[in-house]
Amino acid sequence: MPTASGHAHGELRRETDMLDYFDTNPKPANLDRQITLARTFIEQHAKDGRRVALVTSGGTTVPLENQTVRFIDNFSAGTRGATSAEYFLQAGYAVIFLHRQFSLLPYSRHYSHSTNCFLDFMTHNGAGAVVVEHEYQHQMAEVLSRYREVKRNNTLLLLPFVTVNEYLWLLRGLAMQMQPLGAKGLFYLAAAVSDFFVPAERMVEHKIQSSEDFHEKAGHGDGERQPAAHMEDKRLVIDLDPVPKFLKMLVDRWAPRSMIISFKLETDPAMLAVKSRYALEKYSHHLVIGNKLNTRKWEVLFVTADGGERWIRVPAGRRTKGITGASGDAVEDAEQREPAVEIESIIVPEIAAMHTALINKWESDETRK
Ligand code: 9Z3
C-alpha cells in the first residue's frame, strides 16, 4: 500500500510532469486559431445561459518521426463521441466536438465510412436527377432537420486533432476557456488517448531508415537519451515515455468547477469494474463509464463517487446492412449486429440529469455561503 506521504509525493510528481510537458513539447501551429474559435463560441453560449459540453472523440496518434511517416494509433472509430454529441445537442447543450481528424462526425456519421457509404442511399429518379432512395427518405429528413437546426443556432463547433500532443494542448486550452461557464461546463472524455508517447526531445527528424546501410548513429551526445524509435541489429526498437496524468490536472486545476466524465476501455471483463473504480478514486471526478471493446455498443458500466455501480444495457437489434447469417445472442454477435437503440440515447440523458443535480447543488452551496 502506498503511504500518505508516498501519495503526496506521487501527486506532486504528476503535476510537475504535466507542467514540464507543456514546456518541453511544442505548441501546435494552429492552436491559437482553434482556441480563438472556441472562445467566441463559448462566449456566445455563456451569454445565452446554455450549458456547454466538450466531447472528445477518436484516437490520438503518437508520431515516431517529426516528418511523420510512421505513427502508433489508438483504437476508436469515433462512434461513441459523434453519437453522444448528437444527443447532447438534442438535450439543449452547445457542443465543442474535439475529434480525431477524419473520424466520424455528428450527423454525417449516418452516411459515411465503409458500412454506410452515402452513395448507397442515393438513386436516379429516371428524370436525370439523383435523389435519396425512397426507403431512406424518412430517416434522412429527420437527420437533416436536426443538422440544419444545429447549424442555424451555431451550437456545434468542430475542432480536429491528430497527435496526442495536439490533443493535450487543446484540452488544456479549451478547459481554460470553459472556466467562466462554471458548473455549466461539462467534459465528456470519450477519445481514446494514448498512455505512451515520444517526447519532443527524443523524436528523430526524418523517416527511420530500415536498411542497415543508412542507419543514423543512435544517441546524440553525452547524457542524452536514445531517440525513442531507433534501429538496433535490423530491429526497430520503440521505447515510449508515459503520458503524464492529464486527467488529474483537468480535475484539480484546469476545470475545477465543471462536471467531468471519463471513459475506461478494457478488453478483459475481469478488469472493467476494478479499473473504472480505480480511475474514479485516483482522479476524484464525477463519473467513469466503463466499456469493453466487443460489447461497447450494448452495455456500459456507470461508476460513481457514491460507490454506485450500474450497468446500462440495450436489447439485441437489427443486423448490420449487408451481413447475413449472424444469429444468437447480441452481445456475442457484437461485431455483426447493430443494437436496436443507440446506447448513447440512454447514456446522455442520464448524464444531463446528473449534471442538473450537480448544478443545483453547487448553486445552493453558493447561496448558503
Ligand atoms: C472509450 O472507452 C470509448 O468508449 C471508445 C469508443 C474508444 C471505446 P468508438 O469510437 O469507441 O465508438 O469506436 N474511450 C476512452 C478510452 C481511453 O483512452 N480512456 C482512458 C483510459 O482508459 C482514460 S481517458 O485510461
From TrEMBL:
Q: Which Gene3D superfamilies match?
A: CoaB-like (3.40.50.10300)
This entry's Gene Ontology molecular function terms read:
catalytic activity
Gene Ontology biological process terms from the UniProt entry: coenzyme A biosynthetic process
* Annotated PANTHER family: CORNICHON-RELATED
**Protein name listed in UniProt:** DNA/pantothenate metabolism flavoprotein C-terminal domain-containing protein
Species whose genome carries this gene:
Meristemomyces frigidus
